[in-house]
Structures are given as structure tokens and as C-alpha cells.
């Protein structure tokens, strides 16, 4: 059950990673249309049929986000195609964070550092989860703790990485 | 007095604390999803949390992004788990860092932070400071970026070709629809959103932004809108027709400079009203259903109501390769009523062919219309 759910999700992310990634990155960078994007995801989520949402809220959320990204990509492509001459092209493609790759590299190496500095238990849990792809039960067995404890370690590890990256890369 | 100031400060700071709480809660939900399949009650609670704030949605999606980054980061990790486990078992777990600030203490800490009474010695406060800064930085970054964009978008042109219609969303959120053979230039800066309609017809669904008035100029007219939808049609003959679909606009002739429009006794147009500006001052038009006819193009339609064939053919020719040409004066003055598909010039020609007293001759794409009955 857990495994199949994870697989679905991983598949979804892998397939759409660049889109989600740039979606999030732009949101993080505080670019104006990105905050609108989050807002729009939120509104669509509110408008959605509740029974449908509750069946699998996480998948629903990602689907809404992905659809929105797709719409925006279409819009952007139209923007960048338009207009007479270079001025328009320039204006409409430029805002797409030209330093995306540079910043991506910086984020990656910073994340590796952050992982090394994590409290060992969190680091073990995250390594077993993401490198060895073990379930929480398997991780719990290996670490000799309860699955509840594993969840706590994972959560702490995630929160630390997220908060540090957020504060260090926001709007930079 | 000082009391109210204090209240305001602590409320602003609470937002930072709430943001920090959102990060923690998102992490918790995210981990929970990977621990077990959630029960229905848990899923309901999760949905309620997501619905509580766009920030929650944003944070949760951020963890989705982080997870992908972690997958990549761990792919080549060769860390020795056994050794790590040993270190963990021997209690060498850095304390403090893992201890996130309890949400309920946010406001107290915030207040002390605001008062400068909190030191930076402990991990706890350091965490909190990080969260605080993020909130402020987010706001600052947003302002900075949007300011940058206003500058960036100066002097951008949009154009459509013959029989082409397109819509764009401008950086401020305004949606602009360009009808056939239209050229506009937008110049946004920190004071104003200016649009110059060089030719053709455009409808603007203006995003509300009172700080940056939205002003459209044609050769002859200045139209200023505040959160509204209106259409400006610069006709080949030199006349400009302004139609208000929603809200209100102020119109002046082009001798009035932008900031003065509202004080220069402009013509105020309300919903459903139309005005014409030629070489003279703007004046109201009193056509029945004038607005809906003028903006029928938004539905890819053209609508006529006792209009001359000269006008109707000119309108249809904007959208079609076939060009309808009234040959004699009588044909040009024929009256046409009805709604037609803008891109369906052929149907319009068929309609004419079925009218008595009209002769239709096809010369390739050219459709010659002759009135063979003397009028009157």
C-alpha cells in the first residue's frame, strides 16, 4: 500500500520534475507571477469537489499544481513568441531567472553540506529513505526504534533542510 | 498610544512565527504521508490544513521540491550507515538544532525579539531568528522583483496580423485581447501603465492597481481606467470608438497629459456606454447595443444593426482573406443587420447572394457586390 503510493508519487514527480521545480523555484524567489501561482493553486483547491480531494489529497494537490504550470507554460510560450522584434522577446523571457542553473548548483552543494550537518539520527533516516529506498518500517528495524520515531527523525531532517535553504536562497 | 504600536509590532512578528509553524507542520504532514497510508480522518485533517492558507499549500509543495533534491543528493552518497548508527547510539546527536520552536511560544519570542531582549546564544532563538528573517525577506524580495519588472517591461510591442486575434496576460495581470491587424505598445513604469494603440482594436481587462493608473492613448484620445474592462477601436478613418464592458473609464482628447485626465473635465463612460473621439472632443454615442456589437469580436462574431454594407464589408474584411467590395454607391449604402461569424466571410457572401436585387461576382478572393435595384 505504502509502496504503491510512493511509486505513484515518484513517478509523477519524476515525469514533471522540471516543471514543479521551476514552479517552486520561482515561488521561492518571490517572483510576482509565482505568488499568484500559489494563490491560484489554493483557490482551485478550495473550489474542488471535496469527496474527490479527500480520496487522495496529496495527489490532488500535485495535479492542480501541474495543470496550472502547464497552462502557464503555454502562456509564457505565447508571450515569448509575440511582439515585433527583439524588445518583446527580451522582456518576456528574461524574467525566467537566468541564474537558474547557477543557483541550482549552489543549492545542490549547500544541501549536501546541510545533510552532513544533520543530527545523525535524522541523517540515517533520510539516507535509508532516499538512498536505500527503505520504508519507515524497515528503517525502524534497522535503527532499533519505532516507526513513529523514524517519522520524527525524517520530519526534523526535512524541516531543517527546508528552513535553511529557504532562508539562504530566498530572493538571492 | 504606545500600546497600539506594540500590538501592531507583535502582529507583524506573529506572521513570521506562523510561517515557521507552517514549515514545521508541512514537514510533519509530508513525513506522515510517507510513513503510512493516511486514514480517512487524517486525510480530512490534512485537507483542512491545506485549505487553511495558501502558505500551507506553498510550503507543502516546497517539500515536494525538496524531496526531489534529496533524491538527487543521496544518489551518490557513500556514507557508512553502521558508523552513523554508532554515533547516533552513543548519544552524539547534536542537541538543540533538532529542537524546533513550539508554535505556541511564537508570539512571546517574537515580542522579545522585537524588543531586542533575546540573545542569539541558543539554538532555539537562532532558529526563530531565521524564520523571522524569512518573512521579512520574502516581502522585500517580492517588492523588489515587482519593481524590477515594471522597469523591464517598458516599451514592449504586441501585434496581430490580418485575420489574427490573440490574447496576452500582461505582467500586472491585465489581459489584453488584440483584434485583427492591431498594434499596441505597452510602457509600464513605476508610476503608470501606459498603452499606445497604434492601430486596430484592443480590449483591456484591467487588473486593479490604484497606484499605477492604466492609460490607453490613441492618436486622438486618452482613456484612463481603474479596474475595468473596455475596448478601444482605432478605425482606419481616424475615429476612435471606446466601449466600456465593465467598470468606468475617463476619456479626454490627446491634448490632455496623463496625470491631468481626471481633473480636465473628462468624459466619464459607464458600463454599456460608448464614446467616439475624432479630431474633436470626445462625445457620447447613442447606438442601441453599441457596446455588445463593438465587442462581438471577442466571441469571434461581428454584429450589424442597420449598418451600411460599406461598414459591414470593411468589418468582415478584417477577419477574412476574401475581400468584399461594394461596387456602386447603392451597394455601399445597403443596410445590413444580423450577427455573423467573423471568420466566416463565405456565409456572409451567401447571405448577400440570397438577397433580392444584389449581384455577387467572385473574382478569386475578391467579391464584388453590385446593387441592381434602384433604391427608393
Task: Report on the architecture of this protein.
The complex is a heterodimer of chains A (172) and B (376). With 172 residues, chain A is mainly alpha-helical. Chain A is built from nine helices and no strands. In chain A, helix 1 packs parallel to helix 4 and helix 7 crosses helix 9. The longest helix of chain A has 27 residues. Chain A is flat. In chain B, the strands form three sheets. In chain B, strands 1, 2, 3, 4, 5, 6, 7, 8, 9, 10, 11, 12 and 13 form a 13-stranded mixed sheet that branches. Chain B has a three-stranded mixed sheet with strand order 15-18-17. Chain B has a two-stranded antiparallel ribbon with strand order 14-16. In chain B, a hairpin with a 4-residue loop joins strand 4 and strand 5. In chain B, helix 2 crosses helix 3. The longest helix of chain B has 34 residues. Chain B is elongated. The N terminus of chain B is likely disordered. Classes of the chains: A mainly alpha (172), B alpha+beta (376). At the A-B interface, helix 1, helix 2, helix 3, helix 4 and helix 5 of A face helix 1, helix 2, helix 3, helix 4 and helix 6 of B.
Short description:
The complex is a heterodimer of chains A (172) and B (376). Chain A is mostly helical and 172 residues long. Chain A has nine helices and no strands.
